[in-house]
Amino acid sequence: MRLRQTRSLVLAAAVAVAVSACATTTSPTGRTQVVGGVSQQQLDQMGEQAFAEMKAQKAQTTDARQRAYAACVVNAIVRELPPAWQQRYRWESAVFVDNSPNAFALPGGKVGLYTGIFTVARNQDQLAGVISHEIGHVLANHHNERITRQVGAQGALQVAGAILGSRYGQGIGDAAMQGGSILAQTGFLLPGSRVQEAEADVVGQQLMARAGFDPRASVGLWENMIKASGGNRSPEWLSTHPEPQARLAEMNQRATTLMPEYESARAAGKRPNCG
Q1: What's the mean per-residue pLDDT of the chain?
Q2: d(Cα 111, Cα 199) in Å, to the nearest integer?
Q3: What is d(CA 120, CA 129) in angstroms, rounded to the nearest whole number?
Q4: Domain Peptidase M48, which positions (predicted)?
Q5: Residue of 102, 109, 65 lying closest to 176 (CA atoms)
Q6: Farthest CA pair distance, the chain
């Protein structure tokens, strides 16, 4: 879709945000959310379009093993989503050539990984920790929540400007979209609040345990992420997350409580063999 059409879509969504009656709902962890800034149909369309733009503009890996590995983990996690979430979308994954240790999931059933993620997610359980966390953002409706909150604070025109004009991260902004794609924008690709990140941790560990991935692997994953930052500037994933050591402690404690669910999943035959 051409850039002019992209802008029209986003502007239409922004106007809809301004005039829509927002609603409260309950997140998977029981938290009250204010959503309704955009309809689910609009949100899905934005995610699908953003993913298509990124695939058109950013190189994907030619390594068939990496693609199959990512798809295997994504599919195992998706099978644990509520039936409506499995039926609503044709879930799709892509692996982009980029040394940044990043990943994302978008409304519309789209999951993207950067090749750099394999340097910190060193086995299938750790990769499941990455993917389940990102899908957790979608399942918890964080993108809609973020956009709704932005509109309440800034108004429709400012949201349209933020979605079309601002950049979120040098790698995404420079390499993926350059000048206005939805995918690169604050509040869409990386929802970003600490509350949302903590919630995605909870949802993600639950999903991976149910899928037969070891929930304890999330701890090792985030330890690797912290080390990858070199002790200097935090990587993008950590920039809006809870304090790292407290987060690791919570993950470790949560993993312990999820072990019976993980063992039950394994006993039921859920034994992913993704690579």
Answers
A1: 78
A2: 18
A3: 11
A4: 87-254
A5: 102
A6: 53
Whole-model pTM above 0.85? no
Question: Is residue 81 within 8 Å of residue 105, measured between CB atoms?
Answer: no
- Give the C-alpha separation, 200 to 101, whole Å: 18
Give me the amino acid identity at 26. Answer: T
Nearest CA to 211 among 108, 75, 102? 75
The number of residues making up the chain comes to: 275
Determine the Cα–Cα distance for residues 189 and 102; give it in Å rounded to an integer. 11
Which sign, positive or negative, has the C-alpha torsion 116, 119, 121, 127?
Answer: positive
Q: Which among 222, 251, 250, 227 is positioned nearest to 237, based on CA atoms?
A: 222
pLDDT digits (tens, 9 = 90+) for 235-246: 444 455 556 788
For residue 116, the 8-state DSSP code is G
Q: How far is residue 98's CA from residue 118's CA, in Å, rounded to a whole number?
A: 11
Q: State the catalytic residues.
A: 134
SS3 content of the chain, % helix, strand, coil (to 5): 60, 10, 30
189-235, pLDDT tens digit by residue?
A: 444 577 888 899 999 999 999 999 999 999 999 899 888 877 554 44
**Spatial distance between the Cα atoms of 262 and 255, rounded to a whole number of angstroms:** 9
Distance CA 69, CA 72 (A): 5
pLDDT, residue 174, reads 38
Contact in structure between 174 and 54 (CB atoms under 8 Å):
no
With a CB cutoff of 8 Å and minimum separation 6, the contacts of 165 are 179, 180
